Amino acid sequence: ARKEDLPRQQDLFQRAMAARPDPAAEAAAHYQLGRAQAQHRRFVAGDRAAVERLTEQAEACFKRSHAIACDNGAADSDLAGLSACEIAHLSFSLQNYEKACEWFDKGFDALSDDSQLMRAAFAACYGYALFAQRRYDEAERLFDRYLAEVQSVLPDRVICAALVAAGVTAALHGDVAHGS
User: Fold this and answer.
1) Alpha-carbon torsion, ordered 72, 122, 177, 95, to 10 deg
2) How would residue 162 be classed by pLDDT, with cut points 50, 70 and 90?
3) 120 and 83 in one domain?
4) Confidence of residue 175 (pLDDT cuts 50, 70, 90)
5) Residue 19 sits in the same domain as residue 89
């Protein structure tokens, strides 16, 4: 994404909405605009008001995408799940871990059984959000499930990173549990 991409994305979105797309295309368009707004936040990182505005706009797009995709049922369950995970990721970036976990729950529930890579992309943030709320057992279970689910579809180096994350979580849990 480049800094100048957002206005073009917004224009394309307006054109797509004017064409009255079918619900699946509308959900996808809302999702794509949300992604563009979320990515654009890094270009205005020094401007707190701009970051907050883009975050709100991105979240609104993802929520609309999630709602439409949920209405579309099983055919759009992955888009519903992905939109929910994007909302969770925005919340995570603002250190709102409770809200992040709420939306990660929705996202992971909606993602289909064939979506290991999508879950893998968000599992570390989800686990950390659980950990930040001192929900250590849930974080460890998540990492265990994540590793078991994706070992057959991810390259070894990604699995190694996940093992390190799971190990760190377990070690930190142990440190807290033993007061060290």
Assistant:
1) -90
2) low
3) no
4) very low
5) yes
